[in-house]
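User: Hey, my collaborator sent me this sequence without any context and asked if I could get a structure. I don't really work with proteins. Can you help?
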Amino acid sequence: MVIIGCYGFRELDKFYKLFLLQAVIALGVYAIVAYDFSANNQTLYNVYIAVEYMILMLAAAAVFSKQRERLWILAGFSFFAIVFALNLVWKGANQLTNYAVAAGAIPVLIIYLILIYRSSQNKNSKAMVWLCLGLVIYFCGNAPFLALMGFLEKNYPKLNEVFQLYILESLGHLRYILAAVSFWLYLRHRRSSNTQSTLWPKEI
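Assistant: No problem. I've predicted the 3D structure and written it out in C-alpha cell form, which is a compact way to encode the shape of the chain:
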C-alpha cells in the first residue's frame, strides 16, 4: 500500500493522502517496536492510536462536504477523545488504552459503513469501497477483543495470546491488503480517465 501510494502520490486526492500518511506512521511505529521488542511500548501505541483516529476522521471529513455531516464526524471523534482521556487517567499512559479503541470503533464503523454504501452507488468512487471495507472488518474484529482484553489476560492468558498473535495480526494484514487494492484501483481509474477532472465528486 505504501509503495503504491508513494508511486502515485501526485495523483492521490486528500482522502488517499491521509490514509497514506496513516500507513507510513503505522509502519514507523511497528519498526520501532520490532527494533526494541523488549521495551514497554504501550505509551507509543497510545500516541499512535490517538493519531490514527484523528486521521480516520479527517479522511472522512474530506469526503463528507455538508457541515452537518462534518459536525457528526467531530462528535464521533470527541466521543473517542473523552473515552481516551478517561482511559489514560484510569490506567495510565503506560497501559494500552484498549477501552478507547473499542469505544472509538463505534463512530468509525458507522461513518465508514455509510461511505461503503455511498461509494458503491457511484461508479467513480467504487475503489473507496475496498479501503473502507478493510477498516470495517478490522474494527469489527478487534473492538470486541480489546474491550475484553483485560478479562482475557487475567483469566485466559493463552487464549488472549492466540487472539493477539493470530486474529489481530491477520485482521491488520487484511486491512492493508484491501487498502492496497483500493489504491491500485483508484490510480488505475485516474490514469484511464480522458479528462483532467477529479475522480471524486464533491459529495458522494
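In plain terms: Residues 157-192 form the longest helix (36 residues). You can pass these C-alpha cells on to your collaborator as they are.
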